[in-house]
Design goal:
Layout (H helix, E strand, L loop, with lengths): L1 H29 L4 H21 L4 H22 L6 H6 L5 H19 L1 H15 L8 H13 L2 H12 L4 H21 L2 H4 L1 H18 L5 H22 L7 H4 L2 H15 L1
Helix pairs in contact: 2-9, 2-11, 3-9, 3-12, 5-12, 5-14, 6-7, 7-9, 7-11, 8-9, 8-11, 12-14
Length: 274
């Protein structure tokens, strides 16, 4: 009898764990692809709306100070994104001396592609078109808010990996985390940059929707070291955004966006053939 009791206890625990995993699997399976991005868009618009309501009551020096604070915090986030550069997974996956070269090569190639496509100018034109459509004043920070927020919300591995996971049906945990972060970021940015931050939800929806389709079609396609390369490059782009917010240097971050796609591909080529 004792043997029977001792045997059934762990079996029950395993069965309970299996049931929980199955429930989670069924929950994720019945959620349609893209629900994570929809939640993300709602949080961006909601956070920006609250930010505008609060920001309209602030004096200009206060809004300027908030922008400076956001610039400094963005640089802090960039420093955090650079941490994988020294991770064992990234270092051991690439030949000696190639860890920085992959990042440099990604930025150079991506910059050339972005400059040829004039992505920065296209973002400015899109922002100006939307400013006119939403009837914002020409001296407002609408375009600046739109471009800055679009880049900030799109850059980073959570946008890509979370969308791929959403498309694969393996869960929206990463996009829920991103949505929470974006809500507070949108609120803070909109308090000083206005409604352009809310409109940035449109390109974010298209960008994450693209990666959701990729996840739906191809499944998990990125190795850990490729994610690291993309994260590091994203960190460098965040430095550029921080410098823009602090009015130190107007880095054409929009032209560097293709580097995010180049980074995992270049890392794979170096890993496989060098």
């Amino acid at each position: 009898m004792c043997l029977s009791t001792e045997y059934e206890a762990p079996f029950y625990e395993d069965a309970e764990t299996l049931e929980m995993d199955w429930t989670l699997h069924e929950y994720n399976r019945h959620m349609f692809p893209g629900v994570g991005t929809i939640i993300n868009i709602v949080t961006i618009v909601s956070g920006a709306s609250l930010g505008v309501l609060v920001g309209n009551r602030m004096k200009k020096p206060t809004r300027t100070l908030l922008t400076d604070v956001l610039g400094l915090v963005t640089l802090l986030g960039a420093a955090s994104a650079l941490i994988p550069l020294w991770s064992d997974r990234y270092i051991n996956s690439l030949p000696k001396g190639w860890t920085l070269l992959v990042v440099l090569g990604s930025l150079l190639i991506g910059g050339l592609i972005g400059s040829a496509l004039k992505l920065e100018n296209r973002l400015d034109i899109l922002g100006e078109t939307l400013r006119i459509k939403f009837k914002a004043s020409s001296d407002s920070t609408f375009v600046e808010g739109f471009v800055t927020a679009s880049l900030l919300f799109a850059i980073g591995p959570l946008a890509i990996l979370g969308s791929i996971s959403d498309g694969m049906g393996t869960g929206i945990d990463q996009l829920i985390l991103k949505s929470t972060l974006d809500f507070f970021a949108a609120m803070a940015f909109a308090s000083s940059l206005g409604w352009g931050v809310a409109v940035a939800a449109l390109p974010v929806a298209l960008y994450q929707g693209f990666w959701t389709v990729i996840g739906l079609a191809l499944g998990e396609i990125l190795e850990g070291y490729q994610v690291d390369a993309m994260t590091i490059v994203g960190g460098v782009l965040l430095i550029g955004i921080g410098l823009r917010l602090l009015n130190i240097k107007q880095v054409a971050v929009g032209n560097l966006l293709p580097a995010l796609a180049v980074a995992p591909l270049l890392a794979m080529l170096v890993h496989s053939f060098i």
